[in-house]
Specification:
There is one protein chain. The protein is of the alpha+beta class. Helices cover 43% and strands 17% of the residues. The strands form 3 sheets. Strands 1-5-6-11-10-9-7-8 form an 8-stranded mixed β-sheet. The longest helix is centred in the first third of the chain and has 20 residues, at 16-35. The protein starts with 15 loop residues before the first helix and ends with a helix.
Length: 458
């Protein structure tokens, strides 16, 4: 008995309707990327292992899919590592390539490799799949698309202002109103750590602070104490625990907390610039919110940190994020090239649009009209009309087989094709077409010119 076919865990098949909906999101994001001046690039699905390994931390390295060398890969295996069952050392001798983990590191490699061809600042966007050997769960897959936009070669904060506007433009175009664009700054987190005497425990401090909304102030205090942060320092955080109000109000409170930190004050100044610009330019449907607990990407972000959350009432994690990184290309030998970028979470955006019923009904109507097949002579007349319709940008097709009419009509219904055309013996003689609307049942006899006009307007 043949084995039942399956696909790997964490991957998915997409039916025509799902692909149409995903393409709607892709096209909306791509269109806005290009409106904002970003240029498309593509990089290979797999990179040399040394391009990827060591760039994402120990945890990230474990989640990279390695590709076995071609041919007899064991012939060149490290025998000592093989005998010792040392998988880490063995992997490097049998695998020289790996599937990309994200689009950011390949982009850094691209910039360094093509630096003499690039005009800086370089604004690029990239929409391609990535792979992670992660544990699959709702909204998290092993193969998924990333939609990234980055600017490298500019330290200007106007880039951050543009990215806030870009998020707003995309979600407004998707009719996903009421998203919150959260912003923080790595310099503020570093300043807070400095003020409380925890400069060497920045990660421990921010990981605990990030849980404030989930576990509350007392538990956060306990966790910080457990990580070795002094009680006196934690007591200085009291104003931070109760930080609230408007963006401007929170900034004023932060100025008081960080008055002794030069780094922290610089972070405040950067946030003030972005907020002032956005307040004057105004957003369409999104809102900009300061969130000092936001601490994503601390291994590489050096300035602004972004995270986008879905509208209130939708139970979903972040649907976008990004930030400023000052030396990403330095890992490949090109120093002092500042960059800033954001990403859109396609799969989560899809789930949110689905939950809120925001997909346009028309995006799944791939074909506007189906011609019923009554025989070869009728089919030829239909194909000539179909050629004319397609030349006018109208999606049309002929049912390929001369089957019972009811079966052909059922096919149109199941495909959600809104119109059918009948070309029978009488239509052949009069050179006309019977156009039927599948929803209303209304039929009319028309010539080719009228058929093209009616379907073009439909």
């Amino acid at each position: 008995m043949a084995k039942k076919p399956s696909i790997p865990k964490g991957t998915r098949d997409f039916n025509p309707e799902e692909v149409a909906k995903r393409n709607y999101i892709f096209n909306t994001i791509r269109e806005n990327f290009e409106h904002f001046g970003f240029q498309p690039i593509e990089t290979p699905s797999f990179e040399n292992s040394d391009t990827l390994m060591g760039k994402y931390g120990e945890e990230g390295d474990r989640l990279i899919f390695k590709i076995l060398n071609s041919g007899d890969f064991l012939n060149k295996a490290d025998q000592q590592a093989y005998d010792a069952k040392d998988s880490t050392k063995l992997t490097s001798s049998i695998s020289e390539k790996a599937l990309r983990y994200d689009l950011t590191v390949p982009f850094a490699r691209y910039v360094v490799q093509h630096q003499n061809e690039i005009e800086f600042p370089f604004k690029r966007y990239q929409i391609q799949p990535v792979w992670r050997a992660d544990r699959p769960q709702k909204g998290r897959f092993r193969e998924f698309f990333q939609c990234d936009a980055d600017v490298v070669g500019s330290q200007s904060l106007w880039q951050e202002v543009e990215f806030v506007q870009l998020y707003d433009a995309v979600f407004t175009a998707l009719k996903l109103e009421g998203v919150t664009i959260k912003i923080n700054n790595r310099k503020i987190l570093s300043g807070i750590a400095e003020v409380i005497g925890a400069q060497n425990k920045l990660i421990d401090f921010t990981v605990a602070l990030d849980k404030l909304d989930k576990i509350g102030e007392e538990k956060v205090r306990e966790e910080m104490l457990g990580k070795g942060i002094p009680q006196a320092g934690i007591d200085k955080l009291q104003p931070l625990f109760s930080l609230s109000g408007t963006f401007d109000a929170q900034i004023e409170q932060l100025k008081s907390i960080l008055s002794t930190s030069e780094e922290g004050i610089k972070g405040i100044e950067e946030l003030e610039f972005i907020n002032k610009a956005i307040s004057e330019l105004r957003l369409q449907t999104a809102s900009l919110q300061l969130d000092v607990t936001l601490a994503r990407g601390l291994n590489y972000y050096t300035g602004a940190i972004f995270e986008v959350s879905a509208p209130t009432g939708v139970d979903m994690g972040s649907i976008g994020g990004g930030g400023r990184y000052d030396d990403l290309t330095g890992i490949f030998g090109l120093k002092d090239v500042s960059g800033v970028g954001i990403s859109f979470g396609l799969d989560r955006i899809y789930l949110v649009l689905e939950a809120l019923n925001l997909f346009p009904e028309t995006i799944t109507n791939t074909v506007k009209v189906l011609f019923i097949n009554f025989g070869d002579a009728e089919a030829m007349a239909s194909m000539k009309a179909i050629k004319a319709l397609r030349a006018n940008g109208i999606k049309a097709e002929l049912f390929p087989d001369n089957k019972k009419t009811i079966k052909q009509f059922n096919y149109a219904n199941k495909r959600n094709i809104p119109n059918v055309v009948l070309v029978g013996e009488s239509e052949l003689q009069t050179e006309t077409f019977t156009l039927k609307n599948m929803a209303s049942g209304k039929q009319q006899s028309v010539n080719l010119e009228t058929l093209v006009r009616l379907l073009g307007d439909a």
